[in-house]
Protein backbone atom coordinates (compact mmCIF):
# COMPACT_ATOMS: atom_id res chain seq x y z
CA UNK A 1 0.00 0.00 0.00
CA UNK A 2 2.80 2.42 0.87
CA UNK A 3 4.51 1.65 -2.44
CA UNK A 4 1.35 1.95 -4.55
CA UNK A 5 -0.97 4.58 -3.06
CA UNK A 6 1.27 7.70 -2.76
CA UNK A 7 2.43 7.52 -6.42
CA UNK A 8 -1.19 7.30 -7.54
CA UNK A 9 -2.07 10.29 -5.35
CA UNK A 10 0.82 12.29 -6.80
CA UNK A 11 -0.05 11.34 -10.38
CA UNK A 12 -3.70 12.26 -9.93
CA UNK A 13 -2.87 15.59 -8.28
CA UNK A 14 -0.30 16.52 -10.92
CA UNK A 15 -2.47 15.63 -13.89
CA UNK A 16 -5.47 17.52 -12.54
CA UNK A 17 -3.44 20.54 -11.43
CA UNK A 18 -1.49 20.74 -14.72
CA UNK A 19 -4.71 20.60 -16.70
CA UNK A 20 -6.03 23.47 -14.58
CA UNK A 21 -2.78 25.39 -15.07
CA UNK A 22 -3.07 24.77 -18.82
CA UNK A 23 -6.52 26.36 -18.83
CA UNK A 24 -5.32 29.36 -16.80
CA UNK A 25 -2.21 29.88 -18.94
CA UNK A 26 -3.92 29.02 -22.23
CA UNK A 27 -1.33 26.36 -22.95
CA UNK A 28 -1.74 24.01 -25.92
CA UNK A 29 0.35 21.35 -24.16
CA UNK A 30 -0.21 21.51 -20.38
CA UNK A 31 1.85 18.32 -19.87
CA UNK A 32 5.04 19.71 -21.43
CA UNK A 33 8.20 19.65 -19.24
CA UNK A 34 8.57 23.44 -19.32
CA UNK A 35 8.39 24.77 -15.77
CA UNK A 36 6.18 27.83 -15.55
CA UNK A 37 5.59 29.29 -12.06
CA UNK A 38 2.15 27.70 -11.74
CA UNK A 39 3.31 24.28 -12.96
CA UNK A 40 6.25 24.37 -10.56
CA UNK A 41 3.86 25.26 -7.74
CA UNK A 42 1.58 22.37 -8.69
CA UNK A 43 4.46 19.89 -8.69
CA UNK A 44 5.79 21.02 -5.33
CA UNK A 45 2.42 20.91 -3.60
CA UNK A 46 1.42 17.54 -5.09
CA UNK A 47 4.67 15.87 -4.00
CA UNK A 48 4.48 17.43 -0.54
CA UNK A 49 0.92 16.15 -0.16
CA UNK A 50 1.94 12.67 -1.36
CA UNK A 51 4.65 12.54 1.30
CA UNK A 52 2.11 13.34 3.98
CA UNK A 53 -0.19 10.63 2.61
CA UNK A 54 2.64 8.08 2.79
CA UNK A 55 3.33 8.90 6.45
CA UNK A 56 -0.33 8.82 7.49
CA UNK A 57 -0.91 5.60 5.56
CA UNK A 58 2.03 3.75 7.13
CA UNK A 59 1.20 5.02 10.62
CA UNK A 60 -2.38 3.74 10.26
CA UNK A 61 -1.53 0.41 8.63
CA UNK A 62 1.39 -0.43 10.94
CA UNK A 63 -0.33 1.12 13.98
CA UNK A 64 2.69 3.17 15.01
CA UNK A 65 2.88 6.83 16.09
CA UNK A 66 3.62 9.00 13.06
CA UNK A 67 6.30 10.82 15.05
CA UNK A 68 8.27 7.57 15.28
CA UNK A 69 8.53 7.62 11.48
CA UNK A 70 10.12 11.08 11.63
CA UNK A 71 12.81 10.19 14.17
CA UNK A 72 13.34 7.27 16.53
CA UNK A 73 14.18 6.57 19.29
CA UNK A 74 14.93 10.26 19.83
CA UNK A 75 12.55 13.18 19.23
CA UNK A 76 12.65 15.43 16.18
CA UNK A 77 15.43 18.01 16.55
CA UNK A 78 14.93 21.38 14.81
CA UNK A 79 18.48 22.42 15.73
CA UNK A 80 19.83 19.35 13.94
CA UNK A 81 17.80 20.31 10.90
CA UNK A 82 19.20 23.84 10.87
CA UNK A 83 22.79 22.72 11.31
CA UNK A 84 22.56 20.17 8.51
CA UNK A 85 20.78 22.68 6.27
CA UNK A 86 23.68 25.13 6.51
CA UNK A 87 26.25 22.39 5.88
CA UNK A 88 24.27 20.99 2.96
CA UNK A 89 23.90 24.43 1.38
CA UNK A 90 27.67 24.92 1.49
CA UNK A 91 28.35 21.49 -0.03
CA UNK A 92 25.71 21.78 -2.76
CA UNK A 93 26.84 25.34 -3.55
CA UNK A 94 30.38 24.05 -3.98
CA UNK A 95 29.12 21.27 -6.24
CA UNK A 96 27.23 23.75 -8.42
CA UNK A 97 30.33 25.94 -8.65
CA UNK A 98 32.57 23.07 -9.70
CA UNK A 99 29.99 21.93 -12.27
CA UNK A 100 29.82 25.45 -13.70
CA UNK A 101 33.59 25.51 -14.09
CA UNK A 102 34.16 21.97 -15.36
CA UNK A 103 31.00 21.22 -17.36
CA UNK A 104 28.94 24.41 -17.84
CA UNK A 105 26.92 22.94 -20.73
CA UNK A 106 25.80 19.80 -18.88
CA UNK A 107 23.00 21.33 -16.74
CA UNK A 108 21.39 22.96 -19.79
CA UNK A 109 21.97 26.53 -18.64
CA UNK A 110 21.27 29.09 -21.39
CA UNK A 111 22.43 32.38 -19.91
CA UNK A 112 21.70 34.80 -17.09
CA UNK A 113 18.43 36.67 -17.38
CA UNK A 114 15.75 38.14 -15.14
CA UNK A 115 12.13 38.70 -16.11
CA UNK A 116 8.75 38.63 -14.43
CA UNK A 117 8.68 34.88 -15.02
CA UNK A 118 12.08 34.57 -13.37
CA UNK A 119 10.95 36.44 -10.27
CA UNK A 120 7.75 34.39 -10.00
CA UNK A 121 9.68 31.13 -10.36
CA UNK A 122 12.16 32.24 -7.70
CA UNK A 123 9.33 32.98 -5.27
CA UNK A 124 7.73 29.59 -5.92
CA UNK A 125 11.10 27.85 -5.57
CA UNK A 126 12.05 29.47 -2.28
CA UNK A 127 8.60 29.14 -0.67
CA UNK A 128 7.39 25.73 -1.87
CA UNK A 129 10.37 23.65 -2.98
CA UNK A 130 11.18 22.88 0.69
CA UNK A 131 7.70 21.32 0.93
CA UNK A 132 8.41 19.19 -2.14
CA UNK A 133 11.83 18.10 -0.86
CA UNK A 134 10.54 17.29 2.62
CA UNK A 135 7.62 15.42 1.07
CA UNK A 136 9.96 13.19 -0.93
CA UNK A 137 12.05 12.39 2.14
CA UNK A 138 8.99 11.65 4.27
CA UNK A 139 7.69 9.45 1.47
CA UNK A 140 10.80 7.44 0.62
CA UNK A 141 12.94 7.54 3.75
CA UNK A 142 10.34 7.79 6.54
CA UNK A 143 7.66 5.58 4.96
CA UNK A 144 8.93 3.31 2.17
CA UNK A 145 12.30 2.50 3.74
CA UNK A 146 10.92 1.10 7.03
CA UNK A 147 7.93 -0.46 5.27
CA UNK A 148 10.20 -2.41 2.91
CA UNK A 149 12.61 -3.22 5.74
CA UNK A 150 9.73 -4.83 7.64
CA UNK A 151 9.65 -7.62 5.04
CA UNK A 152 12.84 -9.06 6.62
CA UNK A 153 13.25 -9.97 10.28
CA UNK A 154 17.05 -9.72 10.76
CA UNK A 155 18.11 -6.11 11.32
CA UNK A 156 21.01 -5.68 8.88
CA UNK A 157 19.34 -7.47 5.93
CA UNK A 158 16.18 -5.48 6.71
CA UNK A 159 18.08 -2.19 6.48
CA UNK A 160 19.65 -3.30 3.20
CA UNK A 161 16.26 -4.21 1.72
CA UNK A 162 14.76 -0.94 2.91
CA UNK A 163 17.53 1.16 1.40
CA UNK A 164 17.54 -0.72 -1.93
CA UNK A 165 13.76 -0.63 -2.40
CA UNK A 166 13.41 3.03 -1.37
CA UNK A 167 16.39 4.10 -3.53
CA UNK A 168 15.16 2.30 -6.65
CA UNK A 169 11.59 3.50 -6.10
CA UNK A 170 12.84 7.07 -5.74
CA UNK A 171 14.77 6.75 -9.02
CA UNK A 172 11.87 5.15 -10.90
CA UNK A 173 9.49 7.90 -9.79
CA UNK A 174 11.76 10.53 -11.39
CA UNK A 175 10.96 8.97 -14.75
CA UNK A 176 14.33 9.02 -16.49
CA UNK A 177 15.55 6.30 -18.84
CA UNK A 178 18.99 7.88 -19.09
CA UNK A 179 21.48 5.57 -17.32
CA UNK A 180 23.48 8.43 -15.85
CA UNK A 181 20.42 10.14 -14.40
CA UNK A 182 18.79 6.92 -13.21
CA UNK A 183 22.01 5.91 -11.49
CA UNK A 184 22.37 9.34 -9.92
CA UNK A 185 18.81 9.37 -8.57
CA UNK A 186 19.36 5.89 -7.15
CA UNK A 187 22.57 7.08 -5.53
CA UNK A 188 20.81 10.09 -3.97
CA UNK A 189 18.23 7.73 -2.49
CA UNK A 190 20.99 5.46 -1.18
CA UNK A 191 22.88 8.35 0.43
CA UNK A 192 19.85 10.01 2.01
CA UNK A 193 18.77 6.60 3.30
CA UNK A 194 22.17 6.23 4.97
CA UNK A 195 21.81 9.72 6.45
CA UNK A 196 18.46 8.80 7.97
CA UNK A 197 19.76 5.56 9.45
CA UNK A 198 23.00 7.06 10.78
CA UNK A 199 21.23 10.00 12.42
CA UNK A 200 18.11 8.02 13.41
CA UNK A 201 15.91 10.73 11.98
CA UNK A 202 14.80 12.62 8.92
CA UNK A 203 16.52 15.96 9.63
CA UNK A 204 19.76 15.32 7.70
CA UNK A 205 18.18 13.91 4.51
CA UNK A 206 15.52 16.64 4.49
CA UNK A 207 18.17 19.32 4.95
CA UNK A 208 20.27 17.93 2.11
CA UNK A 209 17.30 17.49 -0.22
CA UNK A 210 15.99 21.00 0.49
CA UNK A 211 19.40 22.61 -0.06
CA UNK A 212 19.96 20.63 -3.27
CA UNK A 213 16.57 21.32 -4.84
CA UNK A 214 16.28 24.96 -3.78
CA UNK A 215 19.79 25.93 -4.90
CA UNK A 216 19.53 24.09 -8.20
CA UNK A 217 16.05 25.53 -8.71
CA UNK A 218 17.39 29.05 -8.20
CA UNK A 219 20.35 28.54 -10.54
CA UNK A 220 18.24 26.86 -13.22
CA UNK A 221 15.78 29.74 -13.04
CA UNK A 222 18.25 32.62 -13.30
CA UNK A 223 20.28 30.82 -16.00
CA UNK A 224 17.28 30.32 -18.31
CA UNK A 225 17.65 33.79 -19.88
CA UNK A 226 14.40 35.02 -18.39
CA UNK A 227 12.33 32.15 -19.76
CA UNK A 228 10.76 29.11 -18.04
CA UNK A 229 13.29 26.30 -17.86
CA UNK A 230 12.58 22.73 -18.97
CA UNK A 231 13.32 19.52 -17.07
CA UNK A 232 14.98 17.11 -19.48
CA UNK A 233 15.27 13.51 -18.27
CA UNK A 234 15.31 11.85 -21.66
CA UNK A 235 18.00 9.47 -22.93
CA UNK A 236 21.44 11.11 -23.22
CA UNK A 237 20.41 14.00 -20.96
CA UNK A 238 22.90 12.93 -18.27
CA UNK A 239 26.68 12.64 -18.38
CA UNK A 240 29.77 12.12 -16.27
CA UNK A 241 29.44 15.58 -14.69
CA UNK A 242 26.93 13.97 -12.32
CA UNK A 243 29.91 12.37 -10.59
CA UNK A 244 30.64 15.82 -9.15
CA UNK A 245 27.23 15.88 -7.51
CA UNK A 246 27.64 12.28 -6.40
CA UNK A 247 30.77 13.39 -4.56
CA UNK A 248 28.68 16.05 -2.80
CA UNK A 249 26.31 13.30 -1.61
CA UNK A 250 29.23 11.29 -0.26
CA UNK A 251 30.61 14.32 1.54
CA UNK A 252 27.24 14.92 3.21
CA UNK A 253 27.02 11.29 4.37
CA UNK A 254 30.52 11.56 5.83
CA UNK A 255 29.62 14.81 7.58
CA UNK A 256 26.47 13.29 9.11
CA UNK A 257 28.36 10.19 10.23
CA UNK A 258 31.09 12.24 11.90
CA UNK A 259 28.70 14.64 13.64
CA UNK A 260 26.36 11.92 14.89
CA UNK A 261 29.33 9.95 16.17
CA UNK A 262 30.51 12.98 18.13
CA UNK A 263 27.00 13.54 19.54
CA UNK A 264 26.77 9.95 20.75
CA UNK A 265 30.25 10.05 22.22
CA UNK A 266 29.43 13.24 24.11
CA UNK A 267 26.19 11.81 25.50
Provide the descriptors you would attach to this structure in a database record.
mainly alpha, globular, 267 residues
Describe what you observe in this structure.
By secondary structure, the protein is an all-alpha fold. The protein contains nine helices and two strands; from the N terminus they run H-E-H-H-H-H-H-H-H-E-H. It has helices spanning 5-25, 37-62, 66-70, 78-102, 116-149, 155-173, 179-199, 203-222, 242-266, and strands at residues 34-35, 229-230. Strands 1-2 form a two-stranded antiparallel ribbon. 38% of the residues are buried. The model has no long low-confidence stretch (mean pLDDT 93).
Going across the major beta sheet, what is the strand order? 1-2
Task: Summarize the main sheet.
Answer: 2 strands, antiparallel
Envelope shape: globular
- Tell me the helix content: over 70%
Distance between the termini: 38 Å
- Uncertain stretches of 5 or more adjacent residues: none
By secondary-structure content and strand pairing, the structural class works out as mainly alpha
CA radius of gyration is: 18 Å
Proportion of strand residues: under 5%
Q: Give the averaged pLDDT, no decimals.
A: 93
- What is the string of helix and strand elements? HEHHHHHHHEH
Total beta strand runs? 2
Query: How many distinct helices?
Result: 9
Amino acid sequence: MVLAVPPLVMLLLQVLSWQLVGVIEGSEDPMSPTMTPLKSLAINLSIGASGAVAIVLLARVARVPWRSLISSPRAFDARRLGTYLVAAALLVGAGIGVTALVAPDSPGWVGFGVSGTTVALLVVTVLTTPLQSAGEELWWRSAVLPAAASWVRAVRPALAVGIVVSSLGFAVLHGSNDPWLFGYYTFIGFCTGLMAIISRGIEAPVAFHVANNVLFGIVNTVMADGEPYAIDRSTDSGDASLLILAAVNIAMVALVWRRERRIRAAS
